[in-house]
Fold this sequence. Notes:
By secondary structure, the chain is an alpha/beta fold. It has two domains: 40 residues, no CATH class; 178 residues, no CATH class. The strands form three sheets. The protein has a five-stranded mixed sheet with strand order 4-3-5-6-7, with helices on one face. The chain has a two-stranded antiparallel sheet with strand order 1-2. A two-stranded antiparallel sheet has the order 8-9. The chain is globular and about 50 Å long. It starts with a strand and ends in a 5-residue tail after the last helix. The N terminus is likely disordered.
Amino acid sequence: MPIWHTKRWSSSNFHVALGSSCNLKYICAMRPIFNIFLFCLSVLVPSFRAAAQTDQPIRQPDAILVMLSTEQNRLRALKTRGDHKEAAQLQKDLQSVYVGIRNDFRDHFSFCPVYYFADTNLALVKQGRLDGILLGADGAIVPAKRLVGKLFQIAYYGYAKANIPRIGYLTEDELADFDTRFGKVWVVYDDQMKQVAYSEAPEFFDRQRGCYFDTTYRRKSKKFNIEYYPIAYKLEEVLRQMEYR
């Protein structure tokens, strides 16, 4: 029979039993399972730090400007090493993604007018210089006068900075972490690129929607890590939760 040695703390009824060789073997055997449990816990529990919010109200926009990524860093790297064929393929795949995004907004977004601009023109947008850089759903240039006196917000398909709830200005924007657990979503910014909201990621049953894998909207590059899932309807959902204009 093993001999048990027990140490008792006077401040509680908690007992710790030490000295049993069989129990030590049992604990050692359970250690790998315990480590697996800790690993799973670290994955399931959000690891990001949510930034605090201000009380500044977020108004519904009169228009949305969708910022399209031009992958300038990747494109520049390909051209620098002389891989012009790959660079051309990258630009072709990006154009395909743009078409998918425009089709998605055309068919699944009705909250407000939507215009598009390249991320290389972001500085001009922040300055309010919109002449000649806004595009419509057909890819044609849209007169900037359409936005005179209008409140617009910028939408970008990417990763949001962690924030709970999902609508609100971040007071620690530079300190917040990007939340990459659920993939890319539609992130909403004000005209100075301060994050004000972000859409939900599509849930599993959403992915069974007919449009979700319809190539009219769903676009994916075979060569590069570039893709788009049609979730414009998720952006509309979050905009409708903002305060009325």
